[in-house]
Amino acid sequence: MKPALISGIQPTGKLHIGNYLGSLKNFVELQNSEKYRCYFFIADLHSLTEDFDPKEKPGQILTVALDYLSAGIDPKKSIVFVQSKIPAHSELAIILNNFSPTGELKRMTQFKDKSERQAENVNMGLFDYPVLMASDVFLYDAAVVPVGEDQVQHLELARTLARRFNNKFGKTFMEPKPFLTEAKRIMSLDNPEKKMSKSSPAGCLFLDDEPETIREKIKRAVTDSGHEVKCDPESKPAISNLIRIYAGFMNETTEIVEKKFKNKGYGDFKKDLAETIIRSLTPFQKKKKELIKKSAAVKKVLAAGNRKAGMVAGQKIEEVKEQLGLSID
Hints:
Layout: E1 4-9, H1 17-32, E2 37-42, H2 57-71, E3 78-82, H3 87-97, H4 102-106, H5 109-117, H6 124-127, H7 129-138, E4 142-147, H8 152-169, E5 177-180, H9 211-220, H10 237-250, H11 254-260, H12 266-292, H13 295-324
Parallel strand pairs: 1-2, 1-4, 2-3, 4-5
């Protein structure tokens, strides 16, 4: 049997090119490699750690589903489902909490960073995020998890939890390995020191942005002193970020991009970059417009995925309960 692979995206608003290059594009490539049994879920439980409007959440969940399908996720090849529709995710997280020392959770860098950003809403969901993430992975015996650099620490904790549980109760969970994408971290167009985020629209390229909007945002993107198109994250962080974006969309290395623009300046590079992004996103945008008119069909895809994922997760949670002595006839 092929090894399982799982990953998810939170429904917190419109997705941007950082989500595309770091997740969606990679999901499709992994799916089409036919090396894995792929599970791609909408991480709506994880999204509750930030302030949100309940009225907007259903639309956000559907939007992520649309983005998955528009990017090329194929329900015939992958299982697409909604996290909250599978009760085993929450149930396993509660169980795993009993084997997750608070000291280890306090050391999580993302918890520290997000606690600073949302100081008035430092909640238990935020603190316990890595445990729920481990549950997401363990329920499907996932061997591989596509993650960005900011999630590697969480996956290491999951591996630790797996070993701790297995040593105490017998082999139950696989120790998942991270799969890092080439475009690991896309930074803001107006501040290369910060990760691209929807909270800063001026520095963010959304997947639904119109061509003129893309051209204008790329034109206004900050650059470094000089004019050489060279990838040097320390001395030229702004242009290096743009080069990584170009390389990601073109499936090229940054070295090839540098050679292509060796005798050209920032202006020529930005014009080519904008057109490259527009050309690359056109099929996605076209398909999404078509799918928006077929929302009932998209919901059926989710319902079918929920049933399939539920069966797999249900069997695993029963196995866990049996290992813990919680199952009686």
